[in-house]
């Protein structure tokens, strides 16, 4: 029975992706599309030109940041579904700051705006952290409720901005590219895509968070509190303070993601029908990455290919874009139900072993099973 | 506006908005009493709304005024099937309950809109032809004042929901099945030792939540939203969950809490017609239900106690 947990998370995640794509293929098949054509059109729309590759990298930016945010909260035992709302307030705060300070030099206004966006997200994350640490209110529900509060409150804020900042009642004017995170070099490299400095910020933040979580006392405390709050308290750590800190960092990263959306991708603010999807997708990225920071990079790459490619699917193969979200959800289903994948892997190994036993010839290769036996013998 | 009309408007719109929440909160109660946390109620409602609207659009000409009621059954069936996903994941495949519920919430809008696009060629459906209209309770409506504010131009489904809450309470606390269901949520090990089938009971709890959540979604779509799109259900499933917690995992309590949430939701809509409230900026009324949910969790969560084995996977030792 021990064997069932002996498989690497990378292998399990890979198989979850495979099964998720199979679910998508079956759905396409049942609804009368050719799955091969569908997936080929997806990959072509995602990677077919340097412009699209740039867009894939661009769409990785908020996913890396929100996923890292989710992971930090998760390490402390929080399930932060509020990333979407935290992204939205970060987006509004940062972009609003630049909109009202266009006379300031971008060398000052942009860094300030990014910081303000991150802080707005941090506050939005700290609140549910504090509510749970202090009152025991489930963050699963409070973060979701805060998403709606942020959504409607943010929309009202945008619609209430001075007329001279607006093009329509629901959309602000667009910032000039020099007052943004856009960088000609990155755009030119990628055929004029919206790839921007946000991508660099995201990579730096990912490495920094990896360092904090794995190499500093704070990171150790966060993980200790997540694993066993009572033990952490017994060891002299403040479980409450650490939990709130973790949620603050989580929100900070989401706010940063919002700043890159506003100042890097869209260059304006427009009212939303739902809290930004990147918040929910970032959660999916983190779950697929199963606790690994390097995993976040690759999971974000995969989901960006899916989402950018998904936009091209209706035109190229008639498959509605929503199929991509179904695939994403299925992948996370198999990650959650990884017990199934592990059972299948055990079955395959056992069948292998049986076949080998049947042959009874030739020198035995050293397989996974033998290694396991050696480990257990130790 | 006279006091009588104001009260009548407030109470009837409260009932209309509460009914879907009551059904869904009752569903959540059954699931969590059996030990399975169901964050996927939102997704279940979305699938129920999808089923109800599609049924209504397809069969309105055949069944006439009966259509929305049959639409509830369609919602229940699809809700049941959809919640099977959660049951399999959490009970059989030992998945984390929150992750599995989140999958349902990610899956439902995508799947719903995908199917709508295939069926109707656009991202949202047309408005349905047969709505749940207003209803006068026979006999009771004739009582002066009380009859006017509670029983005229009211929501039939809300009264059904309130009755179902009492029935659910009886099932949960007075029947053998209810006792068994609660026992697997409190101490599955002990229940197993006594010869109960823990897995089967947990499946039943989750599937009941699927049926009731599906009804809740179909009801919301056919009495309030009027069509199906990605933004038909916006947090009602989560609100129902909060109502269940507020009601301390007790059907009648959950129903009362759902009535409160229904009231605060309806204020965002009818507030503009009421004196005093029409002075308040719309956004405050819009966010009020969500703010109340948070406040209620803060005030009541510490005092309310979830079933002991809620959210804990039971792994039968062989």
From TrEMBL, chain B:
Keywords: Cell membrane, Membrane, Transmembrane, Transmembrane helix
Top-level taxon: Bacteria
Membrane topology listed for this record: Multi-pass membrane protein
Localization of this protein: Cell membrane
Pfam families (alphabetical): BPD_transp_2
GO cellular component terms listed in the entry, alphabetical order: plasma membrane
Main location: membrane
Record field: transmembrane: 34-57, 69-92, 98-120, 132-150, 156-173, 203-222, 228-247, 254-276, 282-302
InterPro entries in UniProt: ABC_transp_permease
GO-annotated molecular function: transmembrane transporter activity
Stated name of the protein: ABC transporter permease
Source organism (scientific name): Weissella cibaria
């Amino acid at each position: 029975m021990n064997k069932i947990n002996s498989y690497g998370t990378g292998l399990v995640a890979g198989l979850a992706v495979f099964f998720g794509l199979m679910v998508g293929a079956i759905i396409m098949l049942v609804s009368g599309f050719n799955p091969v054509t569908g997936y080929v059109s997806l990959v072509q729309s995602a990677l077919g030109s340097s412009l699209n590759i740039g867009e894939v990298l661009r769409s990785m930016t908020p996913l890396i940041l929100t996923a890292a945010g989710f992971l930090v909260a998760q390490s402390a035992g929080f399930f932060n579904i509020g990333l979407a709302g935290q992204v939205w307030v970060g987006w509004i705060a940062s972009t609003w700051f630049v909109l009202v300070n266009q006379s300031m030099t971008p060398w000052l206004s942009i860094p300030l705006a990014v910081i303000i966006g991150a802080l707005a997200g941090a506050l939005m994350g700290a609140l549910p952290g504090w509510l749970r640490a202090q009152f025991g209110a489930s963050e699963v529900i409070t973060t979701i409720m805060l998403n709606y509060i942020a959504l409607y409150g943010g929309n009202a804020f945008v619609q209430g901005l001075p007329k001279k900042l607006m093009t329509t009642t629901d959309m602000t004017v667009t910032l000039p590219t020099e007052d943004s995170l856009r960088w000609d070099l990155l755009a030119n490299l990628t055929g004029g895509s919206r790839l921007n400095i946000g991508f660099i910020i995201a990579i730096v933040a990912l490495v920094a968070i990896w360092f904090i979580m794995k190499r500093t006392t704070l990171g150790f405390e966060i993980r200790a509190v997540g694993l066993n709050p009572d033990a952490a308290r017994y060891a002299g750590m403040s479980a409450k303070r650490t939990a709130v800190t973790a949620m603050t960092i989580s929100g900070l990263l989401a706010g940063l993601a919002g700043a890159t959306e506003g100042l890097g991708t869209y260059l304006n603010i427009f009212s939303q029908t739902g809290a930004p999807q990147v918040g929910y997708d970032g959660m999916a990225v983190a779950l697929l990455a199963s606790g690994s920071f390097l995993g976040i990079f690759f999971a974000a790459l995969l989901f960006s290919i899916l989402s950018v490619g998904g936009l091209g699917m209706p035109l190229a193969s008639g498959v509605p874009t929503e199929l991509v979200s179904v695939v994403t959800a299925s992948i996370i289903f198999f990650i959650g139900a990884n017990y199934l994948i592990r059972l299948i892997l055990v079955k395959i190994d056992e069948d292998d072993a049986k076949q080998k036993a049947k042959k009874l010839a030739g020198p035995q290769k050293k397989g996974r099973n033998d290694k396991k036996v050696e480990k257990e013998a130790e | 506006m006279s006091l009588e009309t104001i009260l009548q408007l407030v109470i009837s719109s409260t009932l209309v908005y509460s009914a879907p929440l009551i059904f869904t909160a009752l569903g959540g109660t059954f699931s969590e009493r059996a030990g399975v946390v169901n964050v996927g109620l939102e997704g279940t409602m979305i699938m129920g709304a999808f089923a109800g609207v599609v049924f209504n659009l397809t069969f309105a000409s055949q069944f006439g005024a009966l259509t929305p009621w049959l639409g509830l059954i369609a919602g229940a069936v699809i809700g049941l099937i959809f919640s099977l996903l959660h049951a399999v994941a959490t009970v059989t495949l030992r998945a984390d309950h929150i992750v599995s519920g989140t999958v349902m919430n990610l899956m439902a809008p995508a799947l719903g809109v995908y199917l709508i696009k295939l069926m109707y060629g656009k991202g949202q459906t047309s408005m349905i032809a047969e709505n749940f209209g207003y209803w006068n309770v026979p006999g009771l409506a004739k009582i002066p004042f009380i009859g006017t504010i509670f029983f005229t131009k009211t929501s039939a489904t809300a009264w059904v929901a309130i009755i179902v809450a009492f029935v659910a309470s009886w099932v949960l606390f007075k029947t053998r099945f209810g006792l068994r269901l609660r026992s697997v949520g409190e101490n599955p090990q002990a229940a197993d030792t006594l010869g109960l089938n823990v897995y089967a009971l947990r499946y039943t709890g989750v599937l009941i939540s699927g049926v009731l959540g599906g009804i809740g979604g179909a009801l919301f779509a056919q009495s309030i939203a009027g069509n199906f799109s990605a933004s038909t259900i916006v947090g009602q499933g989560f609100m129902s969950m909060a109502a269940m917690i507020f009601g301390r995992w007790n059907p009648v309590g959950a129903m009362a809490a759902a009535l409160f949430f229904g009231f605060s939701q309806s204020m965002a809509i009818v507030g503009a017609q009421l004196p005093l409230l029409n002075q308040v900026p719309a956004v405050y009324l819009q966010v009020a239900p969500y703010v109340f949910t948070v406040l209620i969790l803060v005030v009541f969560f510490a005092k309310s106690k979830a079933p002991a084995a809620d959210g804990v996977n039971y792994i039968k030792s062989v």
